[in-house]
Amino acid sequence: MHISLDGYVAGPNGEMDWIQVDDEIFEYAGWRTNEADTALYGRVTYEMMQAYWPSAGNQPNATKHAIEHSTWYNKVDKIIISRSMKGQSLPNTTIISDNIKEKITEIKQKPGQNIQIFGSPSAAHSLMQYDLIDDLWLFINPVVIGAGIPLFKNIDGTKKLKLLETKPFSSGVVCLHYER
Questions:
Q1: Per the confidence metrics, is the pTM higher than 0.85?
Q2: Mind listing the pLDDT tens digit for each residue in 70-105?
């Protein structure tokens, strides 16, 4: 997840124009994405992803990243945490509207690869509340935005994390990989 130096994942109105991405970051994140067979989103991020990724790789002049991520996006299972989408049926998609802890725990116990959450701060807050996130991959952007949507919210008690890897990029972004 991209995060500002002062701990925000989006500005006060959901702005993400401060996030720095480039081919170097896409290349690094691509191998991590390929280790996941399930993508988890909140409704807002899912709608944003669904509007772009299904056909992004088929566009004229599509980048290597767009082709690879579009291919991955179209084949993986998706989980959407959303109350407003309750009852909808979408291909290869599970919508979770209630009993988040129980349902995500059940999904995590099934065979398969990793579940990867993309953006989706509200969904991340729910997962953190129930201690359901095993690893954090934080792309720290060298910017202070002063206000917005924090990554960590409503956390009960101290959560100790172990730093596994630090990866600096030429843009000044630093990826920190932690496990709980």
A1: yes
A2: 999 999 999 999 999 888 888 889 999 999 999 999
Helix and strand totals (H; E) in the chain: 5, 10
pLDDT per residue over 25-51, tens digit each?
A: 988 988 888 888 999 999 999 999 999
AA letter at 51: A
Q: Is the dihedral of CA 54, 56, 60, 65 positive or negative?
A: negative
Q: Which domain holds residue 141?
A: 2-179
How many structural domains does the chain have? 1
First to last CA, the chain: 16
Is-contact 75 36, C-beta < 8 A? no
Please classify residue 61 by burial: count the beta carbons closer than 10 Å to its beta carbon, then call 0-12 exposed, 13-18 middle and 19+ buried: exposed
Tell me the CATH number at 111. 3.40.430.10
